[in-house]
Amino acid sequence: GALGDGAANRREQIRDYELAEIQGQSALDLSREALEGIGAFAGLRGVRGQGIVMQLEGSFDAVAINDLVHELRNAGAEAIAIDGVRITSRSVAVLGSGAIEIDGEALGTTVEILAIGSPDGLKAALERPGGYLAFLEQFIDARVTITTSQSIVVPATERDLIPTAATPVE
Question: Are 133 and 71 spatial neighbours (Cβ–Cβ below 8 Å)?
């Protein structure tokens, strides 16, 4: 009768709510995953992966460092750190008071650059004949060594990445 129909309707409603909860939780997990990925890509999170470790020494300048960052990005680097400083879209090497600085941190005379991405692809792009490393070694008297690694950790940025001039578009 009516009581049995009512109970059946309630059971169906409960199943609908349970299904909606599972789907909602699934969507929430996907959103969290997407947010983690965006945070990692932006530099807000440290990341781990395969890639290359570069040691750079010699008479390089800020322009050479910036060009090297662009070269790594063009070669597919997903995350870069220079002397422990995470490179973000706002990072730029400048000549500070007597030393090259990135995000306010002075670089040493020997610089370590970590880049996460395809180790072989990054290495090949940098070492190609007539490529950027050939230019550095020929014209700037810089020595570069590159080793591949299956486990590199690039730290999160310590820089505030909140825009001051831009606002989100609705």
Answer: no
Q: How many beta carbons lie within 10 A of that of residue 62, not counting itself?
A: 17
Total-model pTM: 0.76
Question: Do residues 146 and 127 make contact, with C-beta atoms less than 8 angstroms apart?
Answer: yes
State the CB neighbour count (10 A cutoff) for residue 63. 13
CA 170 to chain CA mean position, Å:
26
Output DSSP code: residue 87.
Answer: P
Q: Could you give the CA distance from residue 115 to residue 77 in angstroms, rounded to a whole number?
A: 6
The DSSP secondary-structure symbol of 109 reads S
User: Which 8-state DSSP code applies to residue 103?
Assistant: T
Per-residue confidence band for 44, with pLDDT thresholds at 50, 70 and 90? confident
Query: Which of 65, 67, 71 minimizes the C-alpha distance to 85?
Result: 65
Quote the CA–CA distance of 31 and 148 in Å, as a whole number: 33
